[in-house]
Amino acid sequence: MAKKKGIVTLEGAVKTDAGLNYKGVIMEPVVEKCEGCERIVTFEEEGYCPTYAQPSRKWASGVCNFATHVRAEVDKTGKVKVNPLKASKRAARGR
Length: 95
Ligand code: SF4
Description:
The protein has one domain. Helices cover 6% and strands 27% of the residues. InterPro entries: PxxKW_fam (IPR047766).
């Protein structure tokens, strides 16, 4: 039942020195922190994010708010905590 939806493919994308060119958008490979995120699309053995073209920048400013595998929470001291999400919780995501 928990079949992964192959919603996005990067068909027609072209690898360039700057990154993966997909319909004119340069996409950089996903970063280590993206590992486990359902949005990752693999193209020629490298992972790319169709949601955010530059995953490293997304994470540079904290936690990726598009991530499906972790969620950021700010604790009482103002520190950002990253919590792994359970698959069952994803159903409640929908926002
Ligand atoms: S949505 Fe965020 S965590 Fe997921 S692959 Fe894209 S940049 Fe990485």
